Amino acid sequence: MSTTQLGAGPGTDAAVRLESVSKTYGHGRNALLALDQVSLHVRPGEFVCILGASGCGKSTMLSLVAGLDRPSAGQISTNGHKVAMMFQDPALFPWLTVAANVELAFRADGVPKAERRARAAEFLELVHLGGFGRKRPHELSGGMRQRVALARALAQSSSSSEGSAVLLMDEPFGALDAMTRDLLHDELERIWRERSLSVLFVTHNVREAVRLGDRVVLLSSRPGRVEEEFAVELERPRRTDSAEVATLAARITDRLKEEVARHGR
Ligand SMILES: Nc1ncnc2c1ncn2[C@@H]1O[C@H](COP(=O)(O)OP(=O)(O)OP(=O)(O)O)[C@@H](O)[C@H]1O
């Protein structure tokens, strides 16, 4: 994981800390600036949602935090927290059972087989899939497969010795119908609270961002910069279809539209 050490300063105890992070893909005439001096701190236990026009660098930002790629400039720290990532595609191995897909998360840590099995069962219970360990992914609905992916991500982050683990989510519910998504919002919120996770959640769905986030960060069109931040001070649990969520979502959508219009994209 990317754990570049940063010196003391504001946000030193943040679970995720980006300081003036830029990312350029390619070189010379083909160089493409995807992120431009992004600074962002996620506090331990905070749920931060990232919104922005298509191609503004949201996925790039998550992959840098996950350590899957390196920034061209700036620094990133996850402050020793274990990091797990979840995508829109659950990316399960079809030939393995549901339980075996979750158990894979422990393999790298060298956890003995019996313990792997017990811990995978525990995480499947947590996402309410207790009775489904022996099934194959194709026997499950899309929402259930995404729960398995959530169980695996939580398993990956579970050996975090202390403090909250960091969960990076890249449009995890983007392919699901509205009702399944609502159910998974409730599940995720419960697990986030129970486990004090720090979450960085990318979405295109403004209401989803307001439903879930403590804070919504709006990125500019490419190159992505932090354009504006919105604190979501609505009581939890929230409903995606509530008037309060709709009002703040409309404000953010207006800003997003302005941003897209400004860049003609
Ligand atoms: N590996 C790569 N090589 C070259 N260019 C890339 C690479 N990954 C992303 N890009 C470019 O960087 C820019 C940002 O991409 P990124 O996927 O981070 O945006 P995004 O905000 O997540 O987009 P979307 O909302 O459409 O998923 C885009 O112009 C994209 O084409």
TrEMBL record:
MF (Gene Ontology): ATP binding; hydrolase activity
Top-rank taxon: Bacteria
Keywords: ATP-binding, Hydrolase, Nucleotide-binding, Transport
Residues of the ABC transporter domain: 16-246
PROSITE patterns with a match to the protein in the record: ABC_TRANSPORTER_1, ABC_TRANSPORTER_2
EC number: 3.6.3.-
Protein's UniProt name: Bicarbonate transport ATP-binding protein CmpD
Organism ancestry: Bacteria, Bacillati, Actinomycetota, Actinomycetes, Streptosporangiales
Protein encoded by which gene: cmpD5
